Amino acid sequence: MEIQPQWEEFIIAVFKMSRRQGKATNKELSRRLSVSPSLVTEVIKKMQAEGILAGGKNIIALTEAGEAAAKHIISKHRLWEYFLTETLNYNWKDVHAQASALQSVTSDALFEKLNDYLRRPAACPHGGAIFANRADELEGLVPLSECTPGVSYTMRRIPDNTALLEYVEHIGLVLGQTLTVKGFESFDHTAIIDMDGAEVRVSPKACVDIYLAADDAD
């Protein structure tokens, strides 16, 4: 199985979409990757021929080998994010583009040496699993939008979306932050949380991507 560097973002997108919403679609891949639907169709056919995607006209799903490849690519990406923040002091908002450029030129040998140097971290700065070092990332976690009022939680995972990271930083949320969910606005399901005695409101759009662990689940 040969993976072209230009296919990496397609593979990652299919992997993440399948995990989040159960399936990937041509239309959503086109929107997410900012490419034409015809290009998506062309790339899908080539990846099916390589055994990365399952065959089928209306199916966009990774094969077992494709999923392993996705986890390997994501592990490279997230390991570089960890290095950039922990060693070079990058802000967590600014590491995605740099890591995307580095993942494609990182050999397996370099990945192993960097992983050993960093003592095999379990997660990137956004809480995403480095799959080479940890099996999963969302097990035991729940999005803020589905949290139970009155329960205390700790923030564990957030996607590395720049706008979202800027938003949560603005309202004072960081990984490892402990908070209590007080309730939700009846009109639009805005979350009302308590952070160290301060009442904070969190946008419904952000709530679905902020993952927490109940304190009694740690």
Task: Tell me briefly what this model is.
With 218 residues, this protein is α+β, with helices and mostly antiparallel strands.
Q: Keyphrases for this structure?
A:
single chain, 218 residues, alpha+beta, Arc Repressor Mutant, subunit A, SH3 type barrels, six-stranded antiparallel sheet, 41% helix, 13% strand
Describe the model.
This protein has 218 residues and is an alpha+beta fold. Among the domains are: 5-62, Arc Repressor Mutant, subunit A (Orthogonal Bundle); 142-217, SH3 type barrels (Roll). The chain is built from eight helices and six strands; from the N terminus they run H-H-H-H-H-H-E-E-H-E-E-E-H-E. A six-stranded antiparallel sheet has the order 1-6-2-3-4-5. Strand 3 and strand 4 form a beta hairpin. The longest helix has 23 residues, at 64-86. It is globular and about 55 Å long. It starts with 7 loop residues before the first helix and ends with a strand.
Oligomeric description of these chains: single chain
Mean pLDDT over the residues? 92
Q: What's the helix-strand series?
A: HHHHHHEEHEEEHE
Number of helices: 8
**Straight-line distance between termini:** 39 Å
Biggest sheet descriptor: 6 strands, antiparallel
Highest CATH level, the class of the domain at 142-217: Mainly Beta
Helical proportion, percent range:
40-55%
In terms of DSSP E residues, the strand content is 5-15%
Query: CATH superfamily of the domain at 142-217, please?
Result: Ferrous iron transport protein A (FeoA)
State the total count of DSSP E strands. 6
CATH 2nd-level architecture of the domain at 142-217 = Roll
CATH fold description of the domain at 142-217: SH3 type barrels
